[in-house]
Amino acid sequence: MDCTKIYTFNNSYQALTNTTLSRDPGTKLEYSNFGMGLLGQIITLQSNTSSFHELLSKWILNILDMNSITFDLSDEQKSRLAIQHSNSSQELPTWKASKPLTPGTALDSTASDLLKFLSAIIVLMKTKLGDVKKDTQLIRHSTNHLLPNDEPAIFPSNKFDSDTLEFHSGFGWMIITNFGQEIMWHSGSTPDGYDSFIAFNPIKEREVMILCGVDASHINISNIIFKANNSLASLVGTLLTE
User: Fold this and answer.
1) What is the rounded distance in angstroms from the CA atom of residue 8 to the CA atom of residue 98?
2) How confident is the model at residue 151 (pLDDT cuts 50, 70, 90)?
3) Sequence-ordered alpha helix ranges (H) in the chain
4) Contact assessment for residue 194 and residue 200, using Cβ atoms and an 8 Å cutoff
5) Rounded CA gap, 196 and 190, in Å?
6) What domains can be seen in the chain, in order of their start residue?
7) pLDDT, tens digit, for every residue of 3-23?
8) Which residues on adjacent β-strands are paired with residue 85?
9) Which of 133, 141, 157 is nearest to 228 (CA)?
């Protein structure tokens, strides 16, 4: 699905109707913005809320006091928006996702609110909800390949056996593990130049968050986890593991 195009919910339902499964459900990992959007819509309908934003606000954002996360920026929030730029310092137009894709692609946030979210994950692990939270971080699928270069910067080679590192998936989280210590992470980018990356180490209780508002294809923030010889990736790895 092309995220830059305009879709309606009827378009999504029609696409689902016309889809033929190429394999049994649960047998292979494939990231899908369409799938994330569809899941968000199903949960919204089952919860009897008017929108995914209302659902998210009720169960997560309001509880954690994450008041700056939204799908629709207010005038006050727009005044604080970091305008994205190209490598030549030109302002880029703001991209708006279609409603069916918003659960997986369209949240605007501040660094402060994302850090609240990461901190809450660590805290929840120590409460009665810990088992529920840990369930989302269990390895559900393996990509069946080692990470590029056999030396990902996120796990310094002098401290971890890089030959055993593999890339896995939980519920929404990507997972790198040497089967002794794990890094949970997720990243994303938009067609208009925004890049984001969040990660945490549940054992060390370390968290890292990066937001970038420039066309940073030469840096590629959203794929920083795979950059073995990148200085920024090395810094992220050090912050998470030492």
Assistant:
1) 7
2) very low
3) 9-17, 33-47, 52-56, 75-79, 102-105, 111-124, 130-136, 231-241
4) no
5) 9
6) 21-241 (3.40.710.10)
7) 667 888 888 888 888 888 888
8) 91, 214
9) 157
Dihedral of the alpha carbons of 178, 218, 36, 75, in degrees to the nearest 10: 130
The angle formed by the CA atoms of residues 69, 184 and 121, to the nearest 5 degrees, is: 50
Structure tokens that stand for 215 in this block: 């066309």
* Encoded amino acid at 184, one letter: M
Please tell me the predicted confidence (pLDDT) of residue 46: 92
Residue 198: closest CA among 140, 99, 120, 95: 120
Q: Show the tokens assigned to 205.
A: 């209780």
Cβ atoms of 199 and 208 closer than 8 Å = yes
Report pLDDT for 2: 65
Q: Which helix (H) or strand (E) holds 51?
A: none
Q: Which two tokens stand for residue 160?
A: 């971890």
Q: Measure CA of the first residue to CA of the last residue in the chain; give whole Å.
A: 40
Mean pLDDT of 136-143: 64
pTM: 0.76
Q: Of the candidates 209, 179, 216, which has an alpha carbon nearest to the alpha carbon of residue 195?
A: 216
Alpha helices in 58-100 (DSSP H): 75-79
